[in-house]
Write a structure and sequence with these properties.
By secondary structure, this protein is α+β, with helices and mostly antiparallel strands. It has ten helices and 21 strands. It has a domain at about 30-110 and about 160-225. Bound molecules: 2-acetamido-2-deoxy-beta-D-glucopyranose (NAG) (5 copies). One 2-acetamido-2-deoxy-beta-D-glucopyranose binds near residues 167 and 169.
């Protein structure tokens, strides 16, 4: 089916804003633009590369996003003590979940504000601190800055960030879109392979005429996802969780996961749940996420307690029964990783969890008159033991990684040198 996404591509952001005040020679980066007409916002993801070592909470405040949401989006285990103060390594690639609005007819995120610090320039804020997700000119325009050479320390700047939603679908399947800043080493084929999509799909989505991509371009990369169907009045309406990751919702009371086996959103009480409203399905003894079934000659009678959204501070639950040809196996969960300490090749370019299964514990039969019960025996959000193989693998790999990590540093240096040169013009 031909792609019907109405996109204007090849919009040269930097050319749009004819730079009157500076003589800086810009790279002309392309960015995929999605026109929009209503005021609905939607969920999207930013691909962010850390410019320096940062605490989880510092990354969160750069984007004004819940730190727990950043961790769960990257399948990082939040059960580690003091995980919000964990220091993430420079050059780590993270997916940042954001709300994508419709502003002046195009999709963008405008909820991020940055408080300037001494020695910040618009270029360092754009290229380094926000890792190329925004340009200096876009920040200048968004804040009507007439003289970019004078930035007051402590000034609060709106940082417009690129995002797309395309109705939460890609080729009619649920998807959420990652705004990906092309690095010098990238090829379209490489990006397609890394995100389990195809070159054709990337070209369609981004309305590209050729496979050529350039350092600094921003691509919309579709990530297969699990969609919710909460009512419009739910505060988490439109929740969509990319395959291989988690989301936390309902005031940290509910965690939802997607994959790896199927793309059905699965929600259950979160480990962080402190004071939460009831998560029991009405007229049953089932809690959110519980699934029971009974094999009969007609098939498998499956009863499940589902999450239906967060409404007025209440966790909506619904009980469903269905007759299925086969009884479902234990719920599977995307593998969690330990909070990263070093940049591995994977985490640098894209944190894709290794296809290792865990968390899908053994069924826990309960003597409660419920016939057969399976639950993912998750200790909270929790999942794999603290010293999961992934954690040790990343430290073992650090020597290998050092050589790989030089490329991005060289890139940062390159930006820096360029900046210096442009300032001396
Ligand atoms: C958006 O997706 C919904 C279903 O999720 C569909 O009903 C609607 O027609 C789609 N809209 C567009 C413009 O594709
Ligand atoms: C979801 O992720 C798992 C593990 O990463 C992968 O095996 C599976 O193919 C993915 N599903 C889709 C629809 O992309
Ligand atoms: C139901 O889910 C809760 C919370 O996840 C879990 O603690 C409990 O063991 C489950 N009970 C049954 C009967 O499956
Ligand atoms: C399936 O189970 C539910 C509850 O256990 C029961 O009310 C319902 O009648 C059953 N349906 C069938 C088709 O067996
Ligand atoms: C939420 O609460 C307000 C008042 O507290 C009420 O007017 C509104 O109808 C409620 N919404 C829903 C969906 O229950």
């Amino acid at each position: 089916m031909p792609n019907q996404k109405p996109i204007f591509q090849n919009l040269f952001f930097l050319l749009l804003s004819l730079s009157i005040f500076t003589n800086v020679a810009h790279v002309s980066s392309k960015s995929t633009i999605e026109p929009c007409s209503n005021s609905d916002s939607c969920n999207a993801v930013l691909g962010y590369t850390l410019y320096t070592d940062l605490k989880v909470s510092e990354v969160a405040s750069l984007f004004q996003v819940d730190p727990i949401a950043i961790l769960t989006s990257n399948a990082i285990d939040i059960s580690y003590p003091d995980v919000e103060n964990h220091i993430l390594p420079s050059q780590l690639f993270l997916k940042i979940p954001i709300t994508c609005s419709c502003v002046d007819g195009i999709r963008k995120s405008v909820s991020t504000k940055y408080k300037t610090r001494p020695s910040d320039t618009l270029s360092t804020i754009a290229d380094s601190i926000y890792s190329g997700l925004v340009s200096a000119d876009q920040i200048r325009e968004a804040n009507s800055i007439s003289d970019p050479s004078v930035l007051d320390v402590g000034q609060s700047l709106v940082v417009p960030l690129p995002c797309t939603c395309f109705n939460g679908t890609d080729n009619s399947l649920p998807a959420t879109y990652l705004s990906y800043v092309v690095k010098p080493v990238d090829t379209l084929a490489g990006i397609a392979a890394r995100y389990l999509t195809t070159i054709t799909d990337l070209m369609d989505v981004n309305a590209m005429g050729s496979t050529a991509i350039k350092d600094g371009d921003i691509l919309a990369v579709p990530l297969p996802a699990c969609a919710s169907n909460f009512p419009r009045y739910a505060s988490d309406f439109g929740l969509i969780v990319p395959n291989g990751s988690y989301a936390i919702t309902a005031s940290h009371c509910v965690q939802c996961s997607c994959g790896p086996g199927n793309l059905n959103l699965y929600c259950m009480p979160a480990s962080l749940a402190v004071s939460c409203s009831s998560m029991q399905c009405r007229n049953s003894n089932l809690m959110l996420g519980n699934v029971t079934f009974q094999q009969s000659s007609a098939g498998c009678n499956v009863t499940a307690c589902h999450y239906g959204g967060y409404v007025n501070g209440t966790i909506v639950t619904s009980l469903s029964t269905s007759l299925q040809p086969r009884c479902p196996g234990a719920q599977q969960f995307p593998p969690l990783i330990a909070p990263p300490n070093s940049v591995t090749r994977d985490s640098m370019f894209a944190p894709s969890p290794s296809p290792q299964s865990n968390g899908a514990g053994t069924p826990t039969p309960k003597s409660s008159g419920v016939p057969t019960t399976t639950t993912g025996s998750l200790p909270g959000l929790g999942l794999p033991p603290a010293n999961s193989p992934i954690a040790s693998a990343s430290s073992d790999a650090s020597s290998l990684v050092n050589s790989l990590a030089t490329f991005p540093s060289a890139f940062v240096l390159f930006i820096f040198v360029k900046l210096m040169m442009s300032m001396s013009l």
